[in-house]
User: Fold these one by one.
Assistant:
Number 1:
Amino acid sequence: MRIGLLIIGNEILQGKISDSNTTLLARYLIAHNRELSSTMVVGDEIKSIHQGLNVLFSSCDVVITSGGLGPTQDDVTKEALASWFKSNISYSQEAFEVASKNYQRFNRPVPSQDHPYCYLPQGFIALENSTGFAPGLFMQSEGKYLLSGPGVPREFKSLLEDHFASLILSQLPKSEELIELYTVRTKRIPEEKIFKVVDPTLWEKLAAFGSVSSLPHIMGVDIGVTLKAQSSREMENKKSQLKKIFLHSPLAGHIWHFGVTSLEELIVRVANEKKITYGFAESCTGGLCSHRITSVSGCSQTFLGSVVSYAESVKSSILGVSEQTLAKFSAVSEQAASEMAQGVAQKLKLDIGISITGLAGPGGGSSLTPVGTVYIGVWARGKSSVYHYHFPGEREQLKQRFSQGALYLLLEELQREN
Amino acid sequence: MRIGLLIIGNEILQGKISDSNTTLLARYLIAHNRELSSTMVVGDEIKSIHQGLNVLFSSCDVVITSGGLGPTQDDVTKEALASWFKSNISYSQEAFEVASKNYQRFNRPVPSQDHPYCYLPQGFIALENSTGFAPGLFMQSEGKYLLSGPGVPREFKSLLEDHFASLILSQLPKSEELIELYTVRTKRIPEEKIFKVVDPTLWEKLAAFGSVSSLPHIMGVDIGVTLKAQSSREMENKKSQLKKIFLHSPLAGHIWHFGVTSLEELIVRVANEKKITYGFAESCTGGLCSHRITSVSGCSQTFLGSVVSYAESVKSSILGVSEQTLAKFSAVSEQAASEMAQGVAQKLKLDIGISITGLAGPGGGSSLTPVGTVYIGVWARGKSSVYHYHFPGEREQLKQRFSQGALYLLLEELQREN
């Protein structure tokens, strides 16, 4: 049983936006014990869409398309599907009703009957869209399945969730296997060092359990093993054996999590469990640490707030960094980081205050303090510690690395506290 | 002349990361008057890579691959290329030297001669990687070109920039056309309304100049026209005609920019030109507005800082929002937004203070103040104005929409000031 994705959109091939529907579909399928075989991206021309359908249907039983279902003239997916399936587009009362429901859901007047949404290739059915206006499409013929959704990721996701299981999964032979990605997240160690230096036998040990992957992120590597099992008992058994291998590996000290929880989710969970309040004094990260934490629902229990102290005047007036420190050591210094962390903790009444001051560039570097330099201060239980790093990369990457460094230190401090 | 991209990586088909190399390559090609024809994503198996090469080389003269060049055992791109091109992998002194240079650039000891980086399919050449360790690959045969780069976007990008022009572009027939994407950015109007209600003849007028696309974003639609011309004079002429069409359209009031500048870049540019200082009091956006602004190099000239006032205690202690306001109207109210904007402007000594207070959910909503409600305060020249919106979406989308709403208002205020 092979499943392929055809992404239709000039905007992706012209670099205006990045595709995220592959990720959405892949995660959805794994959660249903299925795998995505391949994705193809083609432009908004009927010929290219036909080529994509030819390629994917030559090896897949199920093809999902995204994009080109909207009301504008560059939306040609329906025309392409009609000609590929040797069908004709015609008015469909059912499609009109589905489109009307989509509009009513947003308290909008129903579309007129000559609206493109009311027209479908014959043999296709229209699907309700719970997050947008354009109906999805479905057709099934000789053991092949086609599901078409809008390109907007929110709408593509809801189309999958609303229709994939009932229209396609329920008709396919039941998956005989459970599939799970076992993920282990490491910090502060490069990929090559893990498998060449720290634990040269690790890869082979893991490969005995399933296909292994190693995914380097900003300042961390995720190691993944794709586990397959016939029963949930067998799955649990494999997972516990794998965990033992990792815990006995020299890599153990670099592991910060077994599972797919993000760093910010883990921080929120630990802080909430321990009822430890925290916040940031952000200079070079400019709000990114706070943004990452506040993307996690429930963070407000213990994340109280932050000061983005970009200008020196804000560092001194709000955080109480002394003018002397700024004049003598500069704002990018151990002393400033220490005073910023203490300042934000005291002003906002936090148990833990984390400060980040550094140079994200591209300008402003010197031989003493090059771009990529960062000081991260951790104020907790009455005292500050300051960590000094130098990272490579450009402005946006450096902001990401700085924030990752700060969040690692915050997690360690949270896990240390009793 | 067709160019295709083959992305190799289970991590993408398993949903662990999203592809961004398509976007990088597409933008690089357009800047060189070329277009990306198609992208295909396949897993880390030799058979799948061969299928991808078959599909892309059947219609393309140039195929670029990304991924699978690293040192771990799931990296099989070299093996797949060798067998597809009927070549053998062998030690290459040249590859050893290229790899050594890659290591020396990071002050790391050179790899041993049995390192996988020193082995290549015969007939291929190794390419220096200016941002990582793994060498890229190049081969040319019977008018077909293959360039392989690492999957890490930073490394893929530098491989393109360092080698694509000299190895491939210089050998291709010179592009006879200039290509440019003419982009117009609109705000606060849905895609369907633009072309069905506000200006029903717009699409056809634009289509006379080139292929038209319409790309809905968070709270805005970008309209793009792909212009082709034989000379830069013809190109400029087309652009000025297009601009006139837009300026005479009823859509004109919704246009906030002609070009591809991002909202945050435009804000930084206008604020710096006018020397107007600004900052945010962020509640529900949790630092996102500040993060977006500080992603723009040069923002520190006029962006002074922000307060992320997540907890009520921070709203009152740092921003001076009165306890009465919080008790009587709650933190998500016009009154709180007004006091927050004024508070941040006065405390941080800003010309413009922008506040954002709302409910990003999923919890905390009520019938009076449902999730998606936001109040945005603009304090400037001694007085506050507060704007009230209600947006659809989930937590992360809402944070994006709230921040977009705040940045639109900030830009309008900056453009209004003299």
Note: Residues 163 and 215 of chain B are 32 Å apart (CA to CA).
Number 2:
Amino acid sequence: LARFAAIVNGVPDASLSVADRGLLYGDGVFRTFRAYKGLVNAWRRHFDKLSGDCARLGIGAPSRQVLEEDLAQALRAAPDAVVKIIVTRGAGPRGYAPPKAPSPTRIVSTAPLPQYPSGWAGGGIKVRVCDVKLSLQPRLAGVKHLNRLENVLARAEWDGDQFGEGLMLDCNCRVIAGTMSNIFVWSKATLATPALELCGVAGVTRDRVLDFARASGIRAEVRELGLEEVLAADEVFLTNSVIGAWRVRELGDRRWEQAEFTAVVRQALERHED
Amino acid sequence: LARFAAIVNGVPDASLSVADRGLLYGDGVFRTFRAYKGLVNAWRRHFDKLSGDCARLGIGAPSRQVLEEDLAQALRAAPDAVVKIIVTRGAGPRGYAPPKAPSPTRIVSTAPLPQYPSGWAGGGIKVRVCDVKLSLQPRLAGVKHLNRLENVLARAEWDGDQFGEGLMLDCNCRVIAGTMSNIFVWSKATLATPALELCGVAGVTRDRVLDFARASGIRAEVRELGLEEVLAADEVFLTNSVIGAWRVRELGDRRWEQAEFTAVVRQALERHED
């Protein structure tokens, strides 16, 4: 917390108006990713996703140039960090109605790289199935917006490092995602990841994995996924822009020993793209 | 906006840490109500609801005494105002996991009383049915939490004062609430309001109306409600702690002329309680 630093609307400043709709209603979107030596992998995708999510909510996104200036400023102070970019609809008159002349707020912050247990990246993680179910909301599905109480409640179901991640099902018991990650299964040389038209967040790393599969001639499906299919898969892995890809080693009674395809994906994700 | 004033953790200050989970995840709850001449009607209920909502999210609620001190400070500066109290889980390390030693943030703010069109309070309002549907989440239903994007999207469906409120249905097309209010129908001398076990916010004014009905020997039902039943009702009214009760005058092709029962409810809500 002490090393947390933030730039609000271009100004180094760790505070925000309490009239900001990001606080009042979660009326905004965000991105989280790693920087190494001041560089961000797949920055173009992150910017496009942020802009696209802003458009879904009708928020005017900051320009790429403005965000790149903020980012450069943040990364000069913390070149190796987890970066978070938040864009909110800004402050406005009281009430749910979006302001007629909104002035969006942008926040670029850095935090220390996470200290996950050393075995997780290579050896995989133990995963649980969360009790909290994701609700269905097509108007918000796929968007990384600031309404994340379901993720908070799900993550609160376990303490510390006993699990590396929790799987979230929707209220029809379809597998959707981890609390902070997307999920892929690899079975019979086919990759599959859940469709996210009704809930969940369509992450940038998920897109990168799908693009890698397509470019490599690997069959990849985006569709409904059941828990039985996850348990029966040859490999299961979880992705986000901080962890890359973690293989699942244990889920309930099921254990996975091999993770050859996941290792290939991990390597592909390390490759730098603009 | 200029007259917006806030007290954060007891200190007059209009800013907040951008590491606050209220902003990052909507990880908090709130209350909105009116003050007249420095007095808040039904304050005990507001405090109980705020505490209960904190408990639903596992957030340690501020004591009543602490909040009353904040409130007194805010109302000295603005005795006639809309008051908003927000309690968040506070700042913490990065990630969805609630901090092990959370330090909740409390924000008490005041804003000018709203300037609704003069006819609305007595003459009733025109209401629309919103396109955005409420998703079903029993873990959060009833709680006035900070994840309010569905309300924002619904309220964004119309401009200005052409409608006084929008009705929100759930994804099974049951009537749940207005974007900022609870709904009641009055038919054949029976009051009914939607059950809120799957979505919606169980407001303090809704409770006051139900208690008034019980105390007056009026039959009151809390149950599923369909749109046809709303359209067929003798009277329909909407409640919250800022507006009291507004009768619905028009919904689609349906117009209501009478509102005798709603007038009785309006009067009952004016009565001061501690």
Note: Chain A touches chain B through 59 residues (CB under 8 Å).
